[in-house]
Amino acid sequence: MRPPLITLLLSSLITLAGCATALDPPATLEAPETQYDATIVDADNGTSLSIAALADALTEADVIVVGEYHGHHGSHLLQSRLQAALYRQNPALVLTMEQFDLDHQRELDRYLAGETGEAELIEDASAWDNYRASYRPLIELAKARAMPVIAANAPSQVVRCVGRQGPDYLDTLPADVRAQLPANPFTDTPGYREKFVTALTGGHGIGEEGMNERMQNIYKAQLLRDNTMAVEILRARKLYPGHQILHLTGTFHSEERLGTVALLKQRAPELDVVVLTPIFWPTGQSQPNLEDQRSKGDYLYFLQPLPKEYRDAERARAAMSDRFSQAKSASCE
Fold it and tell me: In terms of CATH architecture, what is 27-153+221-306?
């Protein structure tokens, strides 16, 4: 961890005449104006930073983890600009991504080498639906600059089947597939289970003893993703010694330094890992309450909230049921 920046040395200044003069209050933050904008803040002192200033502050970091709200233009634009700024100051940069599964590394490498086209990459590597709008700029910069890109996520089919059948599903995998996954794929860290259950139950925590088998399996699938990403980040450091790692992931995997970040530090406590966390600017407020957010990351970036998907509760339930049914259709045999 970088040492905290000290920005206030005294609460008042004593003048030569013996009068106390209060320091000026901290500058107010500027709310993001559009869905593309992000207001970047140092969590230690509440100071707003530009992309260039942020990149400069990250010079000594071994691993930079940028959490995202999947599909939010502000997250993806920040990631792209930060990638470019980091590369300008240190071309020894590796991009690791949750958005590609490790079993598609070959397809990703072939595209980066110019052997396939973008549509082939999307089809062959099972790229996310929002690839063109969200991740194309990152991959294209990496391709143009010969920057290594690591597909860091666990295979989605394996994750789904662990979620359905439990951790024993890994014992049914062919040896070569199992060898790609971490030796200890379900390692846990304090606090993460509670956070996961709270998110899954809408804030109505049920305690570890209250987790049924289905919920336990879903949590194991989550741990498989986090452990795999942590191991792939460490593999990237071995493959490219002396390189800085820029890792992109959904914010749940990194905020509060839990998930992938906690598992990475557990495996390699010597690493300097810096976390950037997205937060929605509070609706109807002129300023966010930073005290409530400081623990979420070393740096925070505020975004406009996303539009509400559904206002019709019945349509929302139907859409969720449809998504769940599609996810269940793949076989685990």
Answer: 3-Layer(aba) Sandwich (3.40)
Tens place of pLDDT per residue across the chain (333 aa): 444 433 332 233 223 233 333 334 456 899 999 999 999 999 999 999 999 999 999 999 999 999 999 999 999 999 999 999 999 999 999 999 999 999 999 999 999 999 999 999 999 999 999 999 999 999 999 999 999 999 999 999 999 999 999 999 999 999 999 999 999 999 999 899 999 988 887 655 555 555 788 899 999 999 999 999 999 999 999 999 999 999 999 999 999 999 999 999 999 999 999 999 999 999 999 999 999 999 999 999 999 999 999 999 889 888 877 766 665 556 787
| Domain residue limits, the chain | 27-153+221-306
This prediction has a pTM of 0.88
Cβ neighbours for 78, distance < 8 A, ≥ 6 positions apart: 38, 40, 51, 66, 301
Which positions ≥6 away from 165 have C-beta within 8 Å? Answer: 217, 332
Q: Can you tell me the distance from the alpha carbon of 107 to that of 127, in angstroms, rounded to the nearest whole number?
A: 10
